[in-house]
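TL;DR need structure tokens for one chain.
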Amino acid sequence: MLNNKKFNIILSLIIAIGLWAYVIGETNPTDTKTFRDIPITFINGEVLTDSNLAVLETSADTMSVTLSGTRSNINKISEKDITAVVDLADAAKGKNELKINVRVPDNVEIEDKSINKVTVVVENNKSKEVDIDVDYQGHFDSEEEPITVEMSRESVIVSGPSSLVNKVTSVKAVVAEGKVTDELKTIKTELTPVDKEGNEVEKVDLSAKSVSVTAELAKTKTVPLVVPINDDAGDTLEKSTTVPKTITIKGKSSDLADIDSIKTEEVDITDITEDTSIDLVPILPDKIQISDQSSSLILIVKIQALSSKTFTFDEGDVDLTGLSDDLKGQVKAGKIEIVIKGTEDAIAAIKKSDLRLSADLGDLEEGNHQVDLTVTCEKTYSSMEISPEKIRVTIE
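>> reply
TL;DR here they are.
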């Protein structure tokens, strides 16, 4: 009887354990769950910086991770409990295939990963100083415009992969519409690196993230623009230039009152041999700025190769003027050659009959004289060479 009782106790215990395991298995089974958009963290970037390198691009910056474990444990996990880390310490210039180290809580296991490695492109690091341009948003009266009185900084250092830094032409400070009024005000605004098209350049660093701009509404005024041009080149090319006739400036009314023109820095086109556009640099008085209406001031140079034509004259073709009625003059010069240079179309239009040769003999007495030979032509040309420049004239 005693043995039967012990057997029943043991059997009951086994059944109880089995029932417990069954219940636990049914109510908290093994489960899986996929967590998406887990951010990939890149560490030890300072190692690249110390080697004057920078990350240009990565093949991925997020990934998916599938975990397995008991349902209760899986349900306790969120994306923030999962970390994906890539170590940049061993990266070199060029393409690098780097392992992604995924860490999860101890009570679950990694069932699957969307990717195991990431491609990291590394290139030389570069830094350069770039000016800050303030961009005022909104619409203003035709004779009013915001003017920047002061900025907390005029430029910033842009650094990062050389190919991206090279794209940055300016750093924009956008001042939102309605921020600028008749009263002087300081506005703090974020900085954005942009390319020549005005598009944001990402993945570069700025030495400062923001700038304080002190601004107010100012008056505008349009005045003549004076552009001094220097050309010491020979006459082998015909150069025509086009420049803006006026410039619109802005400032306080009292500062604008006495300004009747603006001069630019001299533009030297001596070495220019093909069609070119040159940015003009206005010389502005103190407290005066260029209006947005004149933000692009450009000198355009058009080049044309010169053609030439040679005309030959006899000494009898020279008109002698200024002689008194009782005197006569005779030219002793032999052949006279005139070489005219100009554009192809202009030279084609010039005929020998368009040239007039003359010599002024006024106030000269009888005898032999060397006088200047004058040649005139009413047609368009670039230059003229006269040979000889002086002729011998006998007066009797």
